[in-house]
Amino acid sequence: MRFIFKTDYGQDINLAKHGGHKLWYGALLLLLFAAPWIFAEYWLAQLTFVLIYSIVGLGLMLLAGFTGLFSIGHAAFLGVGAYTQAVFVNMGVPFPIALALAGLLSAAVGVVVGLPALRVKGIYLGIATLSFGFIVEEVLARWESVTGGNSGIHVKHPDLFGYKVDSAIGFYFLCLVITVISTLAILNLLRSPTGRAFVAIRDSEISAQSMGIHLARYKTLSFALSAALAGIGGALYAHKLTFISPDQFNIIQSIDLLLMVVIGGLGSVHGAFLGAIFLITMPQAISLVKDYLPPVVGQAPGLQGLVYGAVLIAFVMFEPLGIYGRWLKVRTYLQLFPFYRKGLFKRQKSFQKSDRLK
Known about the structure:
By secondary structure, the chain is mainly alpha-helical. It has one domain (about 40-355). About 70% of the residues lie in helices and about 0% in strands. The protein has 15 helices and four strands. A two-stranded antiparallel sheet has the order 1-4. Strands 2-3 form a two-stranded antiparallel ribbon. α3 packs parallel to α5 and α4 crosses α10 (about 215-240). The longest helix has 27 residues, at about 215-240. It is globular and about 65 Å long.
């Protein structure tokens, strides 16, 4: 069991709490940088998708996990970012400028969607965001002069001021750098007064308002930042697929994104990455296992949806804190063994949500 002796107030907001954090996260970064020479091309492509979905997951985690505002139409922001990137890149705009425009336009759309959050919450907010998702999908399908309609649109390779990123390895490193920057930005935001205001709103809006937190301002800001990250992820998603169409940003995609953060672990930055890994690897695992199942089960068209539903129900019933919550329990068990008590985590129900995930 690790005990940290604090001698400075700055230790409370350090990103790395102790030497173990520096060691393991440093090793993870080295592994990610060496991935193109370790993994085959197919698995490198899957890892690239994990990084892209992690960026989107960080945005949705900021909104749902840290502010307590659920969005069932988050694929709309993904689509706005993807189409913005496609249109500007195809016009010859350099990749960094197009990426910034994709994030800014998605953030502006997020502000518009965030306005209903000022008056509604819970299931009513979910319905509002779901309706917005349908509207965006319809606009992308009907605005044929810009989006190409249902025929879709091709996306050129990223152009970094004259240097074209047209290889899988180059695009992987581009996604890795953007993911690291996005993660550091979210971590720094969460330890700032703005991030603490988000957590206060999640725990209790009445208490937050009594402490002087402007609910309307911070809720709208949370929607804008979440949409901006989704737009950046959508821009990378468009480049990875090289072809996008409106049906790729439908309600199923929104449910997958929400499923990602719930299963990964709400209220945790780690949960966004664990959920992205789950979302990408689960279809691969199903395709590998279904050949060994009876034909009636293995060839059933709704097998993937059935597995997703069963996994979600299992997590909601037995592990509401997701994969990261389960890892915390396993880690605590190993640290305290043989003195671990079975009811240790049950007593955490009396604490605020902000005290549960560290």
